[in-house]
Design a protein that fits this description.
Number of strands: 10
Low-confidence stretches: none
CATH architecture: Alpha-Beta Complex
Radius of gyration: 17 Å
Number of helices: 3
Distance between the termini: 28 Å
Largest sheet: 7 strands, mixed
Oligomer: single chain
Structural class: mainly beta
Shape: globular
CATH topology: hypothetical protein yedk fold
Number of domains: 1
Length: 166
């Protein structure tokens, strides 16, 4: 995907935002004002990656991990994109965001991201990016919403290799 990370929504008055929008929660992507139009209009994209990094909080402190496909092949991270045209200058600003999903029940990814202490011990609120293999790229980019929805899930733990980033 091209453009700056952090989705600039259609209602933005300028291409820089006072808040960071690097992840869109898949569970409410069709309702949130910032994401619902790119989702509804099929502005889905793939962020190519051999790996991704995330903070692991299993020890109670932030330890960064790097994760990649166990078979060493590349995958894509699901994303949304948007374009904003500055009315005053005519400049076009492209931006994108990664789509994430709850990872509380995943044996590997459940420890990623800081848990939300307000949710209680069985609902940590941990998130993960959603990876797509080569076979999932076409459905994610071109299928109708109902078809793309089936890709909003985590791969089993055996699909990942991980190491503490040093």
């Amino acid at each position: 995907m091209v453009g700056q990370p952090g989705l600039i929504p259609w209602f933005a008055e300028m291409p820089t935002l006072p808040y960071w929008t690097c992840n869109a929660r898949s569970e409410d992507i069709s309702q949130k004002l910032t994401y619902k139009d790119p989702w509804r209009y099929g502005k889905r994209g793939i962020i190519p990656a051999f790996s991704f990094e995330g903070p692991c909080w299993e020890t109670g402190r932030n330890v960064w991990w790097r994760l990649w496909r166990a078979d060493g092949k590349p995958w894509g991270l699901t994303g949304l994109w948007n374009t904003l045209t500055d009315e005053a200058s005519g400049d076009i600003h492209e931006s994108h965001i990664m789509v994430t999903i709850n990872a509380d029940a995943h044996p590997l990814l459940a420890g990623m991201h800081m848990p939300d202490s307000n949710l209680g011990p069985n609902r940590r609120g941990n998130r993960s990016v959603i990876t797509v293999s080569r076979e999932g790229v076409y459905p994610w980019l071109y299928w109708m919403i109902e078809g793309a929805l089936h890709l909003l899930r985590l791969k089993p733990a055996e699909h990942f290799d991980a190491v503490v980033r040093r």
